[in-house]
Write a structure and sequence with these properties.
Length: 85
């Protein structure tokens, strides 16, 4: 079954323009998490810099935008480089 797009209109806090968000039925959880990341990154809660940075990083990880570094590929590339020298 192909997801069908729906458009949701949200008012800008200033009330002078609209923001359209494209969502697909059946895929709203992923989009909701990604939307939450964008909202968190744009306006983190008050607090010290470290707490705000941790909040943004956690939201980015939950949205799937932050992936751990694959050290296996890095070591394989290093090994190939060392063998060429």
């Amino acid at each position: 079954m192909t997801p069908t797009p729906t458009i949701t209109a949200l008012m800008n806090p200033l009330g002078n323009s609209e923001v359209h968000i494209l969502k697909y039925n059946g895929m709203s959880n992923k989009n909701d998490v990604q939307d939450q990341f964008f909202l968190t990154a744009a306006d983190p809660k008050d607090g010290n810099l470290e707490d705000r940075l941790n909040e943004v990083i956690n939201a980015k990880y939950q949205a799937g935008f932050l992936k751990p570094y694959n050290y296996v590929n890095g070591y394989a590339r290093l090994q190939r480089y060392m063998e060429q020298q």
